Amino acid sequence: EEGRSGPTHDSMQAVFDMQPFRPAVNLSNPTITNISFTLYAVLGVNEKAQLLTTFLWLRLFWRNEYLVWEPEECDGVARISLPVKELWSPDIIVYEVDDDVSQACPYVYVNHTGRIRWDRMLRLVSACNLEIFSFPFDVQNCTFTFGSYMHTRDVRVSPALTFREMSDNSKQYLEASGEWELVNILGETSILKFGVDEWDIITFWVVIRRRPVLYVVNLLIPSSFLMLIDILSFYLPPHSVDRASFKMTLILGYTVFLLIMNDLLPSTANGTPLIIYFSVCLALMVISLLETVIITNVLHHSSMKYQEVPNWVRIVVLKYIATMICYQWPEPELQLICQYLKDLHAHLLSVQKESELLDQWCHVGYVLDFLLFRIYLLLISCYAMVIITMWCIWI
């Protein structure tokens, strides 16, 4: 009560009896609620359900015009605590919240000017439109909209601190906070219109960034190693080693990464995640396996069928393509063979023909193998440069 009575038991009871009514002497004057919060922790991000779980320290301020006294007349008492359930409190909610778990805080502080401070600790599960295109180097921008549920313009909202101060306070507690780090907190006040009714709202944009080290170490680096092994497998001699079995083992191992990523990425997203490069790498490994099948088939001609190499294949592969990729012919071995065949030309004509056919098919296989290997290496290099460039831009 205003006047000389001060915060006595009787005066408090009179205020408690008016709890259902908004504490304004003139009801045409709105009650202004000041809001601030500290983002204490990001507890989890559910990409599949598009939900963000956070822990907030929320602080509300408003004025009760019935709780005003002079401290000098009350033994210097300038602030008291009262049960929140006995006083009127604004019905401030977060519009995006799917689940709200609040720890009990039964008291509020009231100073002699009637200004009330109510501190609450909230565990919020809120809807957030998650952008996972650049996963695991993604930055999320989630919205918290504070406003009254029932009251229209008779309850106004405004920030109790500047958005910069809220951001700095939150960063102080989020410095060592798990997978996510806080980038910034922005906000603005606006008016929400629904028909003829209008609500005062304050919108906060909480920008958080994922720490990608775990995903880089457990997924990207092992994936790069497998791709490197796939590239080095082209140096295995295709005529004496079962290169196809080796590549199929690599493909099987790579499939494990795709199964792991299935559990991490949302089932529906606004855009294709960048991590889809795993699927592209798998496709490249399948292409390299097809190349091995082709080369094995070519070498099969040299060892089983002894068919003569067509003239156009000799010209295109052994002449032009071999020159283009700088294929080195094994000159010393050929000279020895030629010398040997000259000495035994008359007696070993059939052996000479088989050796020539074997050499030709082997060279055709090697030239095609080198050509396809260089094309495959060029594809992987271009793709890696594009991915690295895009990630550097996002980071």
UniProtKB/TrEMBL annotation:
Keywords carried by this UniProt record: Cell membrane, Disulfide bond, Glycoprotein, Ion channel, Ion transport, Ligand-gated ion channel, Membrane, Postsynaptic cell membrane, Receptor, Signal, Synapse, Transmembrane, Transmembrane helix, Transport
Keyword Iron-sulfur: no
Residues that span the membrane, as ranges: 213-236, 248-269, 275-299, 375-394
InterPro entries in the record: LGIC_TM_5-HT3, Neur_chan_lig-bd, Neur_chan_lig-bd_sf, Neur_channel, Neuro-gated_channel_TM_sf, Neuro_actylchol_rec, Neurotrans-gated_channel_TM, Neurotransmitter_ion_chnl_CS
Gene Ontology terms: cellular component: postsynaptic membrane
Catalytic activity: Ca(2+)(in) = Ca(2+)(out); K(+)(in) = K(+)(out); Na(+)(in) = Na(+)(out)
Domain Neurotransmitter-gated ion-channel ligand-binding: 21-212
Topology class, membrane: Multi-pass membrane protein
Subcellular location: Postsynaptic cell membrane
PROSITE patterns listed in its UniProt record: NEUROTR_ION_CHANNEL
GO molecular function, one term: transmembrane signaling receptor activity
Domain Neurotransmitter-gated ion-channel transmembrane: 219-331
Purpose: Forms serotonin (5-hydroxytryptamine/5-HT3)-activated cation-selective channel complexes, which when activated cause fast, depolarizing responses in neurons.
Family the entry assigns: Belongs to the ligand-gated ion channel (TC 1.A.9) family.
Record's protein name: 5-hydroxytryptamine (serotonin) receptor 3A
Source species: Xiphophorus maculatus
